[in-house]
Amino acid sequence: MKTTDCKILNLPKIADGRGNLSIIEEYKQIPFKICRSYWIYDVPGGCERGGHAYKKNTEFIVALSGSFDVVVNDGTNEQTFHLNRSYMGLLVPQGLWRVMNNFSTNSLALILSDTEYDAGDYIMDYEDYRKWNNQR
């Protein structure tokens, strides 16, 4: 996979005077079955999350509140995506290194995954990632 395989996907936004509503359904707004969901919040200023790659897992990341950056790297190229709208998210395919940073106060990140948690799917060291990526 390449950083150019990451895509910002717009979600339905149903506007209402009482507040807006958006939807994420598997195989409709995102191209996979949702096997796991988790969220990241209360990130102290200056801290990063992620800092790993998945061998098999694909993710869809949404800034439900606030904003943050997702930096993806394919071992050669790097691209930064700024997420700050709850009606759009970033599709991050398997095999890419990712770091989340620049979290605003009270930001809330929702991550939907196409695999269940598997510690063996993670590559936690960037040099190990580059070696693994070059062997594919």
UniProtKB/TrEMBL annotation:
UniProt cross-references to CDD domains, sorted A to Z: cupin_QdtA-like
Superkingdom to which the source organism belongs: Bacteria
Domain Sugar 3,4-ketoisomerase QdtA cupin, residue spans: 5-131
Signal peptide (from-to): none
Protein name stated in the entry: Sugar 3,4-ketoisomerase QdtA cupin domain-containing protein
Organism: Xylanibacter ruminicola (Prevotella ruminicola)
